[in-house]
Amino acid sequence: MAVLPVLVYPDKRLKIPSVPLEQNEPGWEQMLSGLIDTFERAPGCVGISAPQVGWHKRVIVVDASRSSRVSPDSVNHGMMVCINPEIVCTSGKLRFREGCLSVPDFTGNVYRSKKITVRYLDRSFNEQVIETQGFEAVIFQHEIDHLDGILFLDRVRSLKRDVFKRQTYLPPSE
Ligand code: ZN
């Protein structure tokens, strides 16, 4: 499948909450492969959610290893396709400068949990539980927010102080 068009803020479809993906949903494998193709073609992209391509199912793709921002204390599980992901445990706080494929012109400072436990179904619909922290944990929280119609712009404390216009074109990092 080809690369799918990515919805860009302020497209109202980004605000629509997504519903769980059922294994018997017709055509989901094809939509998923389109989502992955779109993710892989976006330079430096470390996460994407299904609603960003107009597919309102609870599916995300995360790959922290595509960024140079992985710090030594970060956990990195490589590329993960996560169906119906849920954050089941959180601890700590950190502030992170986030970007988004759907908000190409801005970045913003967002407070997130430092460590999280995520439960999800993999592509074979087998349950997985992982613990992660730092950069990868931020990506999960950002992408799961998309499933609830929430953008990082909705999370910043001050639109004046915590949102920054990109000076020159940089590939979106999350
Ligand atoms: Zn995003």
Automatic annotation (TrEMBL):
| Enzyme Commission code | 3.5.1.88
Q: Which cofactor does it need?
A: Fe(2+)
Q: Cross-referenced CDD domains, in alphabetical order?
A: Pep_deformylase (cd00487)
Q: SUPFAM superfamilies, per this entry?
A: Peptide deformylase
Instruction: Please state which protein family the record places this protein in.
Output: Belongs to the polypeptide deformylase family.
Does the keyword Protein biosynthesis belong to this entry?
yes
Q: Which domain of life is it from?
A: Bacteria
Listed GO MF terms: metal ion binding; peptide deformylase activity
Which BP terms in the Gene Ontology apply to this protein? Answer: translation
Q: Which UniProt keywords apply?
A: Hydrolase, Iron, Metal-binding, Protein biosynthesis
Q: How is the cofactor bound?
A: Binds 1 Fe(2+) ion.
Quote the Gene3D superfamilies the UniProt record gives.
Peptide deformylase
Source organism of the structure: Candidatus Auribacter fodinae
- Keyword Protein biosynthesis in the entry? The reply is yes
User: What protein does this entry describe?
Assistant: Peptide deformylase
According to its UniProt entry, what is the function of this protein?
Answer: Removes the formyl group from the N-terminal Met of newly synthesized proteins. Requires at least a dipeptide for an efficient rate of reaction. N-terminal L-methionine is a prerequisite for activity but the enzyme has broad specificity at other positions.
Cite the binding residues for Fe cation. C100, H142, H146
Q: Which reaction does it catalyse?
A: N-terminal N-formyl-L-methionyl-[peptide] + H2O = N-terminal L-methionyl-[peptide] + formate
**Pfam families xref list:** Pep_deformylase
Name the catalytic site residues: E143
